[in-house]
Amino acid sequence: MASHLANIYGTEQDRVNCAFYLKIGACRHGDRCSRKHIKPQFSQTILLANVYNNPAHTLEGSTLSKEELQKDFDRFYEDFYIELCKYGHLLELHVCDNVGDHLMGNVYARFEWEAEASKAVDALNDRWYGLRPLHSELSPVSDFREACCRQNEMGECKREGFCNFMHLRHPTKSLVSSLNASQRLSRRKAAASGQDTVGEEMGWTPSAARANGGGGGSWRDGGDVGWKPTRQ
Ligand SMILES: [Zn+2]
Ligand SMILES: [Zn+2]
Questions:
Q1: Most buried of the four, 89, 103, 164, 209, by CB within 10 Å?
Q2: What is the pLDDT of residue 167?
Q3: Is 0.90 surpassed by the pTM of this model?
Q4: In angstroms, what is the span from residue 43 Cα to ligand 2's centroid?
């Protein structure tokens, strides 16, 4: 690619490629966008579109306290973290709290290897979560700092949930450290026993969310096999 083209690739000046799709993996025009959305053939990042339903946006959920909403979200985050670890080395997991159709409840996961991401996409397209079939695809997003709304991080975004950059919902910090530690331990154990990925037999430290009555169990395969993490 000529250098003058490389400089504008995926920027606002690029008249061919959609900057939003490249940076955020979703754009509000969807398939009707006048610029190209070139789906990557290989990527470390996958997108699961419209999966997280924040109860705060529903009638039944409007009465929940801030703590209850956080607990609900932590349970969701943990469910996906544990499931995604089965396909490879999970490096990042992000969930959008936007309310616009193209970003609402989007889950993005970045793996160490492209092959792991491809395996996850294939497997997850056969799965259900929360009574709905999942839709999974490889995503062009590589840098989540670029994809996130800076104003939102400073609490100043005027577009709020309708913003076209990611507004992430953050899990409780101690949950993330505990999940990261569990993944490290399981990967070490799996490597020692000659497996290339962590299986379901690994032990996870139960999180506060689950210990306090969180059930998980929202997963379903094509068949009727409910997926549950095995715990020590
Ligand atoms: Zn677009
Ligand atoms: Zn914003």
A1: 103
A2: 97
A3: no
A4: 25
Give the C-alpha separation, 20 to 111, whole Å.
22
Compute the radius of gyration of the chain from its Cα atoms: 18
Ligand 2 centroid–CA 162 distance in Å is: 8
Residue of 82, 56, 44, 89 whose CA lies nearest to 191: 89
From the number of C-beta atoms within 10 Å of its C-beta (0-12, 13-18, 19+), residue 11 rates as: exposed
Backbone angles phi, psi at 107, to 5 degrees: -115, 125
pLDDT, tens digit, 9 for 90 and up, residues 133-152 = 999 999 999 999 999 999 99
What are 41-50's pLDDT values in tens digits? 999 999 999 9
CB 27 within 8 A of CB 102: yes
Two structure tokens written together for 207:
């999180």
Centroid of ligand 1 to alpha carbon of 19 (angstroms):
7
Ligand 1 centre from 176 Cα, in Å? 32
Tokens 């959609």 -> residue: 18
Across 101-108, average pLDDT: 97
150 Cα–ligand 2 center, Å: 7
User: Per-residue pLDDT for 37 more than 50?
Assistant: yes
* Ligand lying closest to the C-alpha of residue 24: 1
